[in-house]
Predict the structure.
Amino acid sequence: MGSCLAERLSDHLRLSQSERDSLDRLEEQERHFRRGAVVIREHDRPRELFIVRSGWLHSSVALGNGGRQIMRLKFAGDIIGLPLLAFTESPETVAAVTDAALCPFGRERFAALVAEHPRIAALILSLAVAERAALADRLASIGRTPARARVGALLCEISARLRQTGGVEDDRFLLPLTQEEIGDATGLTAVHVNRMMRTLVEEGLIERQNGYVRLLDEQRLITEVNYVDRTAIETGWLPPPR
Amino acid sequence: MGSCLAERLSDHLRLSQSERDSLDRLEEQERHFRRGAVVIREHDRPRELFIVRSGWLHSSVALGNGGRQIMRLKFAGDIIGLPLLAFTESPETVAAVTDAALCPFGRERFAALVAEHPRIAALILSLAVAERAALADRLASIGRTPARARVGALLCEISARLRQTGGVEDDRFLLPLTQEEIGDATGLTAVHVNRMMRTLVEEGLIERQNGYVRLLDEQRLITEVNYVDRTAIETGWLPPPR
DNA sequence: CGCACCTTTGAATGAGATCAAAGATGGTGG
DNA sequence: CCACCATCTTTGATCTCATTCAAAGGTGCG
């Protein structure tokens, strides 16, 4: 089995053999985490970044009052710990939502990769920029839209991103988040998340059964909650491969 | 006068002559924008990125209901239009808050720079990651903290970032934002921003006179509103210069 | 079977929005 | 130089969405 990162990048462009080799060399281990385990703790000084091979995780920051804000869900193929490139102290906590398998790699190996393969560096920059845009969308959603739309937008994002990794069948996916966690992601209380979920069900927009969620009218939901898909990125401008 | 970008990057590391030359070649023009002018419009397909030479700008996204969420203020040395690296359609609007001078450059020149100077690519990736962290902080602030803290945190961020570019003297800076704009940045109404500003004044945390703001007890303000400075970034891991 | 944890529901409270209107301020043209 | 108009700030009253507090069902796991 090749590099997890190579698989992800292949979604966006055709890697050269040389690029693929470098990516393979980047990852020689696989580490496993249990549901609930903390992979990186806020203010710690992690030595490694990770690529998600399987499972759900999320990054979050602790709030003054004891709560937390979940920033982003991490699925198979996502890079964990990019902030380590800018800060020695991690600004965020990363924890496993489900059991998860991760591929760790050191910062110096990342530096070597960047030096050897400018196109990969540029692509990862693109992905970071896209993630920033997704974060911006969520900022807008949380800052200025009613609770129902926030919950709906989160479901849209999960659906769109899971589809990329084959986690959606028939517009239906397993949602292993508690309502508490959904609240931490959307800036709502668990109680209110519950009410909004039921509202969405009553309105015929979604359907739920034992942990699975189905988007009954995804197009309408997307429109009503103002969701924007940020999974597809531009690669035309990238420098040539090596 | 050399490249605006070179000046900014020099804050974080010592550029090689070769790097400096490439950066200089990147910028041969300077363009001026009036207060209120739109530099990049959401959904447009801009051909250029910019470096801010002088003035304040901000990026924002339009909300469904006619409002907008201001994402980030842009000061001298900031890069504008990075999303263009990931998307052909701009996900955000960039507008001038004050009269501003910008240095435009094309995406292909950026690609050439990245190919030639991996260290610069890595540094810009670092800066993008730091910006993402700052956005995350704001997300947490807007999602879960009371209005007073949101306004206070914005003032802290402005102060910290302006200090980098020499825009703060004696803990005092010119604030050219209307309360409407502060509201769009913090997810509050202009009316409520006004009340919170007065509260901060009454509490002796800030002082205002004709457009200037002074942070009277910056340390206390930072603690109370949970502000985290993201201006300093890690550069130890970067690959060697060329 | 029993204990944790999660979901659901109800009632009361509150932070911030909305609506409305009165001062300030500053730029513009006469 | 001044008057006027547009924009911005300030203040008050009311309303609403989400929070908080409380407690009753479910569900799965050890």
Helices of chain A lie at 4-10, 17-26, 107-116, 118-144, 147-164, 179-186, 190-202, 218-225. Chain A touches chain B through 58 residues (CB under 8 Å).
